[in-house]
Design brief:
Elements lengths: L2 E2 L10 H8 L12 H13 L4 E5 L2 H12 L4 E6 L3 H4 L4 H6 L2 E5 L8 H7 L9 E8 L12 H14 L2 E6 L2 H8 L3 H5 L4 E5 L10 E5 L1 H13 L8 H13 L4 H16 L4 E4 L6 E6 L4 H10 L2 E2 L1 E4 L2 E5 L6 H11 L1
Helix pairs in contact: 1-11, 2-11, 3-10, 6-7, 12-14
């Protein structure tokens, strides 16, 4: 048995999800005629109290569309230096939107309103105009750390005061919400746009959704088209998203519980000096006396897969294909 903990994107559709996909009514989504895509977009927009949504192939696309909406050439995006939009989207801020980026430090990948306020550029011909702030929840490089609403609200208020757009890369937002118990609609009220990935913890084979105002989503459809994201009978994929929202959100707590136990197991190893606080389904171990490559090679010999996450860091991600049996077997193998 291979224990694959590289990412929660590795999950396979459940039997119920496959049945929902096979039976989905479909049409041409570029013409706006796929009833299942329309149903997914309406369902998730309503859940977050936002006006509209657009279904896209990936979270990178939904994030990059949002950046295109909220910037112009020679403007700037404020985000944490470990943000997915900066580190893992192929330089898309520059390539797709011709915008600059200001990178901030922050505990476990999170930033504060005070930091944002200090980072807004003055009205000066030498500096790009600040137009957008982007946050990430949960924070991948922060070990799945969680923003709470109380942390978000001051940033929201500052952005409104300064006329900045606020975007959320919510790739794993539902992982945060099942832990905090906060209302999705309260989160929708804080942001101009929210990107949500369906193919991570929610277990869909593909797809992300961008939420926003009707005006922004209308513009987003044109950007999606030029990015090559216009799909046709996409309802087969959207049906998986609907099924996931109905059946696979609450169970994320199980992934989190297993992640905490996995972190405890790793701490028992002499080569692990620290495990970052485990808030959700991401476990990041800091090594001493060995390299990630050496450590991962030994794990690979035991059919355990993980990901190098820095000079002395290795990441493990729990998901719905990693159950109690696999967790017990993981512990046995690393012992």
């Amino acid at each position: 048995m291979i224990i694959d903990l590289r990412s929660d994107t590795l999950t396979k559709p459940t039997t119920g999800m496959r049945e929902a996909m096979f039976s989905a009514p479909v049409g041409d989504d570029v013409f706006g005629e796929d009833p299942t895509v329309n149903a997914l977009e309406e369902k998730i927009a309503k859940l977050f109290g936002m006006e509209a949504a657009i279904f896209c192939p990936s979270g990178t696309m939904t994030n990059q569309i949002a950046i295109r909406l909220h910037t112009r050439i020679q403007t700037e995006v404020i985000c944490h230096k470990y943000s997915h939009i900066y580190l893992y989207e192929g330089g898309g801020i520059m390539a797709n939107s011709l915008a600059s980026v200001k990178l901030l430090d922050g505990d476990l990948g999170k930033i504060t309103a005070t930091q944002v306020a200090a980072s807004i550029n003055p009205d000066d011909i030498h500096a790009p105009e600040t137009t957008m702030v982007s946050l990430e929840n949960t924070m991948n490089k922060g070990g799945g750390s969680i923003y709470t609403l109380d942390e978000i609200k001051p940033i929201h208020a500052l952005c409104r005061e300064k006329g900045l757009k606020l975007h959320l890369d919510g790739a794993r937002l539902f992982n945060a919400l099942v832990e905090t118990g906060e209302n999705p609609a309260d989160w929708g009220a804080q942001f101009d746009t929210i990107s949500i990935c369906l193919s991570k913890g929610l277990g869909c084979p593909i797809g992300s959704v961008l939420l926003g105002s009707k005006a922004d989503i209308k513009r987003a459809r044109k950007v999606r088209k030029v990015f090559g994201g216009g799909m046709r009978q996409a309802g087969f994929l959207a049906a998986a998203g609907i099924y996931a929202l109905d059946h696979q959100v609450d169970r994320l707590k199980e992934d989190h519980a297993r992640a905490r136990k996995l972190g405890e197991m790793l701490l028992d190893l002499p080569v692990v000096s620290e495990v970052l606080p485990v808030s959700t389904n991401i476990v990041i171990a800091r090594l001493e006396g060995t390299t990630p490559e050496e450590f991962m090679s030994k794990l690979s010999q035991k059919d355990i897969k993980s990901v190098k996450f820095g000079a002395d860091l290795v990441r493990f991600v729990t998901h719905h294909d990693f159950g109690d049996e696999q967790l017990e077997e993981f512990g046995r193998r690393i012992r």
